[in-house]
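hi support,

uploading two proteins for the ticket. first:
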Amino acid sequence: MRAGLQEARRAVLPGSVANSRTKIHEAKSGSGGRTVALHLDFVAKPDGSGELMTELATAIEATELLREGLEGSIVLVSDREARLVTVLTFWDGVQFAAGREVRIAWMQKLLRPFADGGIRAHTSFPRFVGHGLRELPAAKLIELTVAQVAAG
């Protein structure tokens, strides 16, 4: 495992960062318990996107981000350029709003060992469409999607 990844894990341990701007955002946030999607876009280091899937899963488990509201994640690698990567994470809206800037910083630090340059981050409220999908939590949707893709 990369030495840089071990440093990223230590840097993103929950509770290690405090930010006064987050408190201002909390009051303005209208997440109301909805799922929040955090998009992280970056160019992977040469030959780095292949290890990303395994090492990211290991790092997420080690940093215990699931306790901080992370519901699931999807890694998207461009079909046109293997170095263009998007990590799409789904968070409990209430927990995310309580520390938006901190959670973004955690994920950027977690991905830094894989990135060849900056990591762009932005958030959105996902709207799942289709019969019966609106009522399912993000984690269940991810599980169903993975099962469907695996079945082929």
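and the second one:
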Amino acid sequence: MSNSPILVISNGLFMKCKNCGTETDGKFCRNCGQELEIHRITVSHLVHEIVHTFTHLEKGFLFTFRKLLADPGRMQRQYLEGFRVKYQRPFSMFFICSTASALCLYWLNRLSGSSADREQVAFNYFLQHYYVLLHILLLPFYTLITWVLFKPSKYNYAEILVLGMYMLAFMLLLIIPVYLLSAGIPVMKTRFVETTVFAVYNVCTFIRFFNKMAWWKVIIMSIVNLAINYLVYVFIMEWAVKVLANSSH
């Protein structure tokens, strides 16, 4: 069959969008943004889409990931200020990153060798099945602490939740290389490296996000915020590991 465009109803200079039915002119639908000239999907089309995804990082998941890596804090602030078209939405970004992290940690621990130490086995099981889930469940608490500490910034709880979702989504991806390294370097203090990575990223994000506050105040509040959240997480994690260790008897 030919590679000609699928028929789109035309009315003079106007074309009807195949996606929403709006009659409009130009290259894209003014209502939904879809291209008006639709081609059949072919192998070459799919190859072009793959290449385009990794070479044109002007919007979507990879663009958001790049911004969270290079410009954390400012990226979330721009999203809240209304610059949203180019960014992956917070819930979908959080879902994609947490799922990817959970799958990677699951298979990493599944493929790693077993340990004779009962508590280490319990910790590996927790990491494999509950690490990401615990962070997801604690996200509303993390958000509450951040909102209370930074209440003078005038951001509401929902806006701080958006900040937290983007930040935690990216940090869950950062954890993957940390645990990959720990698998190859058994003597590495994984929890120390993990805490350091989280702390540095947390502070850098908050300094850029709360840019109207004095930087030294933001640093102090960021450390307090991290300390509270980390202590709560460690308390629950260690309790869960003890329960898992005892249940393995």
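thanks. also noticed: DSSP finds nine helices and three strands in the chain.
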